[in-house]
Amino acid sequence: MWSDVDWCGLVSAEEEKVAFVNWINKALEKDPDCQHVLPMDPSSNDLFTAMGDGIILCKMINLSVPDTIDERTINKKKLTPFTIQENLNLALNSASAIGCHVVNIGAEDLKEGRQHLVLGLLWQVIKIGLFADIELSKNEALIALLRDGESLEDLMKLSPEELLLRWANYHLEEAGCGKINNFSSDIKDSKAYYNLLNQVAPKGDEEGIPAIAIDMSGIREKEDLKRAESMLVQADRLSCRQFVMPADVVRGNPKLNLAFIANLFNKYPALKKPENQDIDWSSIEGETREERTFRNWMNSLGVNPRVNHLYADIDDALVIFQLYEKIKVPVDWDRVNKPPYSKLGSNMKKLENCNYAVELGKEKAKFSLVGIAGQDLNAGNRTLTLALLWQLMRRYTLNILEDLGDGQKVTDDTIVGWVNDTLRQAGKPTISSFKDGSISSSMPVLDLIDAIQPGSIKYDLLKTEDLTEEEKLNNAKYDLNLLILNFYDFTFY
Predict the structure, then answer these.
(1) By percentage, how much of the chain surpasses pLDDT 70?
(2) How far apart are CA 160 and CA 350, in angstroms?
(3) Distance separating alpha carbons of residues 62 and 279, to the nearest angstrom
(4) pLDDT digit string (tens) for 260-295?
(5) Which pTM value belongs to this model?
């Protein structure tokens, strides 16, 4: 006999499979490289078979974070067990590079179609894509969601999930309806969805966008399932029916309903950027590549809570402590204040954590943290916070190299010496240091890869002399994808 927990898990997995298959079928329907497996039948196990050669996963990663994978590095034709393995490694390491937690997932798991692992990884990839534009730096109209007494900083600290909930309640309030507290139990009767669709549907007041009048008659259906179906018919008129079936709404599947709402927001935010508010627009900056690299690295290690905003989400140092443990620096958790923090004195508790984090860095990790105090981490000082994160990532990478080298201590000089020895043996030019100007062309790195795995570099795809900035970038994309494919722990560089 199945227990209630087992049965609910099976139902949820089946719902996710159907939702993801439909999403992938739509997203990749015109991609010529995927026609050998598309369209997939959502009622079958096509998804788990289709994931076996790595192509679908590579494509979905690029949809979520464009240009993550250089198409030239994906094996697409005359696939062999070896080239399939390359695709799967490329997909997994690229997923990690965009912030997915893939520690317990291997290429064999994807090849064999292990359902819970495939679904878990796909959800992470899809979610990253759905959430990509749900932040102030990419959608300044979100400022319309500011509440009385709130600062811009308060809004910028909200996670994508929190912003979506606030967005939904903003429109429900405009419609004169009660607010919801979640995308599970509070949406089961579909009434909030009906009112939300009615609010965000085009009204015909924007040039070139015809009005779509939502038929609200279905809200009076007596049965929840019929009401949900009627609501989804209206959502389909907005091309926003993806991710949920009527039963998913009625059961309150939180994952799929979150995806449904995120997709609706991305297509019809129905927000206008305030014009008369006294707002310092210059303070709304998107994250830099360096910041995104650190954030994705932390998330790939499975830190909890997930880091959505680099500085705001580590202001209590809890994530920093987890990173210390990843680099084998012991943390005395009895000294750590843990959430939920009381309103009175909460910042003091966070500051105490940050002070301890700096203490660990100086005394246990032996980092160079001159001029860095706990207050700097707590306040989100960019330069000083990045200085600590850089040393954490560096130590993490060096630890991996030491493990591979049977515990031998590794320094910059050790790495440069090994690089040059390897290049000389292959008859290729060497470098003077990590500051060598030739590295900007990517050729030393590509030569190194070819020296380690002869014949792995397709030099005919590259420009090697008198490079423009665009050609350097093109080489770098190829270079990074080969590193991701063959040498995962260099991904974040």
Answers:
(1) 94
(2) 23
(3) 35
(4) 999 999 999 999 887 766 676 666 778 898 999 999
(5) 0.86
Is the bond into 305 cis (omega within 30 degrees of 0)? yes
Give the relative orientation of helices 4-27 and 115-131 as an angle to the nearest 10 degrees.
50
Q: Give 336's Cβ-side CA count (13 Å radius).
A: 17
Query: Whole-angstrom Cα distance, residue 84 to residue 90?
Result: 10
Paired with 209 in beta bridges are 206
Say whether 209 sits in a helix, a strand or coil.
strand
Q: What is the DSSP letter of 464?
A: -
Separation between Cα atoms, residue 24 and residue 131, nearest integer Å? 17
* Residue from 94, 93, 97, 34 nearest 69 by CA: 94
**Kind plus residue range of the DSSP H or E element containing 168:** helix 160-174
**Orientation of helix 254-267 relative to helix 191-200, angle to 10°:** 10
**Residues near 264 by beta carbon (within 8 Å), at least 6 away in sequence:** 196, 197, 200, 235, 238, 240
**Is 76:33 a contact under the CB 8 Å cutoff?**
yes
Per DSSP, which regions of 217-297 are E strands? Answer: none
Structure token pair of residue 70:
């250089």
